[in-house]
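Quick log. Single chain, no ligands specified.
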Amino acid sequence: MFNEWRDIRLFRTVGGAQPTAIVQKTDGLVMPERSKTALILPVILALGFGLCARRGADMMRIDREVLAFCLAHRSGAATLLMMSVTILGEEPVVLTAAALYGVISYARSRESVPGILLAIVGISSIVANRFAKGIFLTPRPPLKYMVIPLIDPGFPSAHAMNALSVYGTMAYLALHSHGLSLRYRCGFVGVTLFLIATIGSSRIYLGEHWLSDVLGGWAFGGLLLGLAVIVHQMVTFRVVN
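-> predicted structure:
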């Protein structure tokens, strides 16, 4: 459905009358100018991902210092809270949240694009993360520091990557949903950003990842988010005059 044709709707108001729409069909996808500018974001995030992947001596020192800080400030209550938060970055939870958002969006406005886009982003994030881990094979922190022992490669963090790509896409879609009040949209975005940051931080606090793993996950997830924004704008492009 993405590559068949696009509706470009020009809305005009004449003499106080209700807006009328003139629909034009064009061949293929149309990329608005702002989408072309947004292409810079994935490039920047890809460079950031590459820098995290290198994990030089300075980054390794920072990784150890941040983990030591988290270990020194662990408590029973905080650990329980972080374990509850980190679940929200698990693959089944993220995919379920994406599916629920898509169903609610379709029920409200009969738009299938948000659900399809979230499904693509979620699956892409999971597949790309496993592929990246298989390439870099970066070891996690020592098992003695982990609350939940894991032995698979750590870079990039799947929880951080899934959270930013999927929840970030949900925040973007909510921000551009015209059926919701501005207060609700801003509140949803704020809660989502807090959730993304907390999920990533929980991975370090629980000793499951180094800081560089989480930063790499955020960078890779942000890259997918940037691509999702560009695709969404190309698919649902409307010119309002």
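Strands lie at 5-12, 20-27.
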